[in-house]
Write a structure and sequence with these properties.
Structural class: alpha+beta
Low-confidence stretches: none
InterPro entries: CYP450_sterol_14alpha_dmase (IPR050529), Cyt_P450 (IPR001128), Cyt_P450_CS (IPR017972), Cyt_P450_E_grp-IV (IPR002403), Cyt_P450_sf (IPR036396)
Protein name: Cytochrome P450
Radius of gyration: 23 Å
Family: Belongs to the cytochrome P450 family.
CATH superfamily of the largest domain: Cytochrome P450
Organism: Zopfia rhizophila CBS 207.26
Keywords: Heme, Iron, Metal-binding, Monooxygenase, Oxidoreductase
Helix content: 40-55%
Strand content: 5-15%
Oligomer: single chain
Number of strands: 11
Largest sheet: 5 strands, mixed
CATH class of the largest domain: Mainly Alpha
Distance between the termini: 51 Å
């Protein structure tokens, strides 16, 4: 199944109603949801429909042993600990419902990533690193293709996708772990990105022989994280979430390498999407100068004389930027709501048998004219400013829903807005060829539909842009 989206399209044309339909592959049944009401019912039914089997599969793909996967899903883990350790672990002291580690960890994600003190500290740390790295002398050679020689008007030509990914990961990983991780593995970001390039293979359990680069990069990144957690606690500076995860996983009984694998999986979940959305937002603005000028006017008003920006002002006073953000999420997010039936149940009038998988491909709804008006497959950022209620549309669920509603959505928006605001403030941008020659009528590249995407989709090819220092 090379292109899931094409398969869904064929299925939707074949089955004329909005009722769920089943696809059988290698003896296993996958039920495809077509109605947003059925999607809501799927998210609501947490008894018969479980997300845990997919998490277990991912954990094993990250090298966590099967016995340790069982440990993190063991209910009431605090009861298994010696009495003298119980009062030291959140698994006992803050777990009145006696949840398993994985379900309690979901609560910690919210504590770190939903609006509050922990998110404020994280975004402020991110901004410190962003302000420092957004300078020509800090740009990495592997995304620069040409550097102008005019000292009066310095310019560099870069690959937009690589620039977005490298800057965002540089800042986010340091905000998560501090500089100590990069003292252990200076190339950690590049190692992680090498793994991320092929991470779609994780869903298909590619063995080492067919995915050597994927597995080598994973092992190298996990080894660096394992060494990081060997540093005495007072000498490293992870964010609240990653400090708690390591401590509590140690209480559960996981060895350091498996704890590092768990942390890397969360890094992937947090890092894998924002840089693609940044790419799509920026290239659409560059191909539509009116949008670029309007957004720049908004973001400039949120920037400060010392080269920083006010994040709350960006979030509250930039309607054009919001429109570009929402439209990029709508068009380029291919996340799929997934559950597995652990008992027989009904979705609508259809019985779902125990063992069946249920998929809700959200991009199907996000491209429907019934939800988003005419030209729903075209990028039109103004649809969001014209209709303020569109973000509440039942067809717009880029971050999922139910108890798996992505808590990282706030940090993703903040890191994206800060990056774009400072980029537009400090530089003039133009689409060019690799040597910096302008392209008069640039085109947005096609989206890659033949590779699976956990959420945000990649372009078929990258785009060259030239940056010049802006006189402000």
């Amino acid at each position: 199944m090379r292109c899931a989206e094409a398969l869904y399209t064929r299925g939707n044309k074949h089955f004329r109603t909005l009722e769920p339909y089943g696809i059988t592959i290698a003896g296993s049944t996958t039920v495809v949801i077509r109605d947003t009401a059925d999607l809501a019912a799927m998210w609501k039914n947490t008894t018969a429909l479980s997300y845990d089997p997919f998490v277990s599969r991912m954990l094993i793909a990250f090298g966590i042993s099967k016995c340790n996967v069982e440990k993190v899903f063991q209910s009431d883990p605090g009861s298994l600990m010696p009495k003298e350790r119980k009062d030291c672990t959140l698994l006992h002291t803050e777990n009145p419902r006696r949840k398993c580690y994985m379900h309690l960890q979901s609560e910690w994600f919210k504590k770190q990533l939903l609006p509050g003190d922990n998110l404020v500290r994280l975004q402020n740390d991110y901004l410190i690193y962003l302000r420092d790295v957004m300078n020509f002398d800090k740009f990495k050679s592997h995304f620069i293709t040409y550097q102008g020689s005019d000292m009066d008007s310095p310019a560099v030509t870069v690959l937009l996708g690589k620039l977005s990914r490298c800057i965002l990961s540089h800042c986010a990983l340091r905000a998560f772990f501090g500089e100590e991780l990069f003292q252990i593995e200076p190339d950690f970001a590049q190692v992680y990105q090498k793994w991320e390039d092929d991470s779609w293979k994780v869903f298909y359990n590619y063995p080492y022989i067919f995915a050597k680069d994927l597995h080598d990069a994973r092992l190298r990144a996990i080894e660096a994280l394992a060494q990081y957690y060997e540093i005495p606690d007072h000498q490293r500076h992870p964010c609240w979430l990653f400090r708690v995860m390591d401590r509590e996983l140690e209480f559960v009984g996981l060895p350091r390498t498996d704890r590092a694998g768990m942390v890397m999986m969360i890094c992937w979940a947090i890092n894998n999407n924002a840089h693609y959305i940044c790419f799509w937002m920026i290239i659409h603005m560059l191909c539509t100068p009116d949008i670029l000028n309007t957004v720049r006017s908004e973001t400039d008003a949120c920037c400060t004389p010392d080269g920083s920006c006010k994040i709350e002002k960006l979030l509250e006073h930039c309607p054009a930027l919001d429109g570009v953000w929402n439209e990029a999420l709508r068009l380029y997010n291919a996340s799929t709501a997934v559950r597995k039936a652990v008992t027989d149940c009904f979705i609508g009038n259809k019985i779902i048998h125990s063992g069946d998988q249920i998929f809700g491909p959200v991009r199907n709804w996000q491209l429907e004219e019934g939800f988003f008006g005419e030209c729903a497959r075209n990028f039109r950022a103004d649809r969001w400013t014209k209709n303020k209620n569109l973000t509440r549309s039942k067809g717009f669920t880029p971050f999922g829903g139910g108890h798996t509603y992505c808590p990282g959505r706030y940090f993703a928006q903040r890191e994206t807005y800060m990056f774009i605001a400072i980029l537009l403030r400090r530089f003039e941008l133009q689409v060019t060829d690799p040597s910096g020659l302008p392209i008069l009528h640039p085109q947005v590249p096609p989206v890659e539909v033949n590779l699976p995407a956990p959420a945000a989709m990649r372009p078929v090819h990258d785009i060259y842009i030239t940056l010049k220092r802006r006189a402000v």
